[in-house]
Amino acid sequence: MYIGRFAPSPTGPLHAGSLVAALASWLDARAHGGRWLIRIEDVDGPRCPPGIDRLILDQLAQCGLHPDEPPLWQSARSALYEQALRTLQLGGWAYGCACSRKQIAEALLAQGLQTERHGELVYPGTCRTGLHGQAARAWRLRSTADLAGTEDLTLNWLDRRLGSQTQNLSKEVGDFVLKRADGLWPYQLAVVVDDAAQGVTDIVRGADLADNTPRQIRLQQLLGLPTPRYLHTPLVLGADGSKLSKQNGAAALELGDAALALRLAASVLGLQVTGGTVAEVLAQALERWQASFGGMMPATAAAKSSSLSKHLKEIP
């Protein structure tokens, strides 16, 4: 059975870009006659103001995007992440790291290596061979194909929109963090554990997260978890051409006219709709989504009709 999800981080209200991702994931789940879940990714507690999670749920409800199960909060699931980390430690794939960000940058410069990757430092593997008397600040995953670190790891996967993708995890990402120095859980481990626990079969999200996919596939492999199908959607861009995000001051959604907001989100996905109400917009968008991704749709028209009829009844 198809299970999809939308997983916002409650660091601020939904904006135009996040509505595109929410709508796309909802449409794909409904088109497959599957279930659609909402997961609140609030593991980075200090960056999540009180009440934003409920505001996001209210915004989604105004747009007719209702989950099939009660939402899940990552902040209540630390024990599961700790268990996954322990599995990786026992397998020899996770190791303690004593390096500060400054030390990592200095080590990279000393080796004449690239120091920034999308704002991240590509870790040079300083602590792979041990902490040399220092205390561990964080835990990292070996990004190599073997425990000895002698062979680079290149991962290939197929994205439903972007096509064939490949990444040399060893050189382009390096050994990435599994548990931060402040004790918080990073996105990569938490999302993999929760997707598997919730039985997620298909991940539909913004194209800015495509770069994360190899790290998640590697964790799935090492933890013995299934790898979902992936579809990365177009992004909403700001005036400067960069991805619209909370970090660059994206305005909160104005939902005085939720149907208009949905029409604009649908247009980013290449779906031209004209409905005047939320229900009409979602119905038209679903029909066009089915046509766009017909190869992934249920086998019979009856299945499509039944799914559409069932879920439109939930829309106010």
Automatic annotation (TrEMBL):
Its EC number is 6.1.1.-. Zn(2+) binds at residues 97, 99, 123, 127. Binds 1 zinc ion per subunit. Its cofactor is Zn(2+). A motif ('KMSKS' region) lies at residues 243-247. Keywords: Aminoacyl-tRNA synthetase, ATP-binding, Ligase, Metal-binding, Nucleotide-binding, Protein biosynthesis, Zinc. L-glutamate binds at residues 5-9, 41, 187, 205. It is an enzyme of class 6 (ligase). Residues 5-252 form the Glutamyl/glutaminyl-tRNA synthetase class Ib catalytic domain. SUPFAM superfamilies: Nucleotidylyl transferase (SSF52374). InterPro entries: Glu-Q_tRNA(Asp)_Synthase (IPR022380), Glu/Gln-tRNA-synth (IPR000924), Glu/Gln-tRNA-synth_Ib_cat-dom (IPR020058), GluQ/Sye (IPR049940), Rossmann-like_a/b/a_fold (IPR014729). Pfam families: tRNA-synt_1c. ATP binds at residue 246. A motif ('HIGH' region) lies at residues 8-18. GO terms for molecular function: ligase activity. PANTHER family: GLUTAMATE--TRNA LIGASE (PTHR43311), GLUTAMYL-Q TRNA(ASP) SYNTHETASE (PTHR43311:SF1). Belongs to the class-I aminoacyl-tRNA synthetase family. GluQ subfamily. Catalyzes the tRNA-independent activation of glutamate in presence of ATP and the subsequent transfer of glutamate onto a tRNA(Asp). Glutamate is transferred on the 2-amino-5-(4,5-dihydroxy-2-cyclopenten-1-yl) moiety of the queuosine in the wobble position of the QUC anticodon. This is Glutamyl-Q tRNA(Asp) synthetase. It comes from Roseateles albus.
